Amino acid sequence: MSLLAAAAAVSIAPIASGQERTEFEQQAREIYRNVVEVRSARGHENVPKIVDYVVGELKAAGFSDEDIEVTDYDNDGEATQGLVVWYRSPDPQDKPIALLAHMDVVDALAEDWVREPYKLIEEEGYFFGRGTADNKYGVTSLVATFIRLKEEGFEPTRDLVMVLSGDEETGMVSTRAQANWVAEEVDPAFVLNADAGGLGLDDNGEPLDYGIQGAEKTYATFELTVTNPGGHSSAPRADNAIYELADALKKIEAYKFPVRYNDLTLASIEAAGRKRLDRLGNAQRAFAADPTDEDAIEVLRANPATVGQIGTTCIATMLRAGHAENALPQSATATVNCRIFPGVGIEATEATLKDVVGNEDVQFELISDLVESPESGMREDVLAAVETALEARGVTDVDIIPHMSAGGTDGMHYRNLGYDTYGVGGAAAKQNDTFAHGLNERLLVSSFYDGLDHFYIILKELAGPEEG
Ligand SMILES: [Zn+2]
Question: Where is the Peptidase M20 dimerisation domain (predicted)?
Answer without folding.
Answer: 215-363
